[in-house]
Amino acid sequence: MKAQLLHTYGETPDFRQGEIDVPALKPGHVLVRVAATSVNPIDIKMRVMRPAFAPPLPAVLGMDVAGVVEAVGEGVDDLWPGDEVFGCAGGITDMPGALAEFMLCDARLIAPKPTNLTMEEAAVLPLVTITAWQALFDRARVTPGQYVLVHAGAGGVGHVAVQLAKAAGARVAATVSSTQKANLARELGADKVIDYRQEKPEAYVARLTDGRGFDIVFDTVGGANLDASFAAAAPGGTVVSTNTRSTHDLSPMHAGGLTLSVVFMLLPLLTGQGREAHGEIMRQAARLASAGRLRPHLGHTLSWRDIAKAHELVASGRTMGKVAVRID
Fold first, then answer.
1. What digits encode the pLDDT tens for the residues 227-249?
2. CA atoms of 42 and 58, how far apart (whole Å)
3. From CA 20, how far away is CA 22, in angstroms rounded?
4. pLDDT band at residue 318, thresholds of 50, 70 and 90?
5. Do the beta carbons of residue 200 and residue 126 sit within 8 Å?
6. What burial class does residue 252 get, using C-beta atoms within 10 Å of its C-beta: 0-12 exposed, 13-18 middle, 19+ buried?
7. Is the N-terminal amide bond of 58 cis, ω within 30° of 0?
């Protein structure tokens, strides 16, 4: 089969099309004919920094997948050849990803694709949806009426988090960096938007919450933005972050009695434990999408022949929503 193979790790996205063997079917797995994938910031970090979970070279990246089941392994009794599916199922360690004509997927990690979404739309949802779901429901345990602040509300994870928080009955504020991003956040359900370049946490906390702060703050940015999240949280509030590889003064947490929780959604892929939870999140997301309560924003859709350009777009940090990649 054909695949887009990464030949070197580093700043330059060194992808070249090549031929590799079709993965052999295994018990508990399904072979998926790939229709589309996406590029996530973790793909860029992995390519540039080569963490311990980066796959050996030449590597088949692409964690997200949408496609059609080609064959079903022993022990899989809820998926059948011809089923359209989506999930986050590889592209790390010894699990080749979706930048190939076929991908072997642990059946626990995938779910039936919503029929009202295109393959490209479905392919951009898995990683970001699982991340936002774990943050809001598993860690923060969002409830109706709570006030949730989503940082980077027009970003990949952020634009999904806005929709999930609204689906849970919360009020939602989102930080953005442009009028275009503010418009997208509002379209997706944000009740209030904040231009973080123009307004500091103390100011928007006073303006939007009468100085009380937000019940839940979801930070996908990290660094100084984590400190801003502490400043924006209400006493006894919860801060959830996907980016905590930095040093911080935790005095504001102590003073506010805050809870800090960290999401690293790749753990089930790395450890093999808890994969059923990812599949269940995908099924719940499919229900929301089918009901029109969750929709991805495609900032760009490219052919897999342009995978280097797709990486460059995501690395630029200037895209809204997600970048989809067609396996054509």
1. 999 999 999 999 999 999 899 99
2. 18
3. 7
4. confident
5. no
6. middle
7. yes
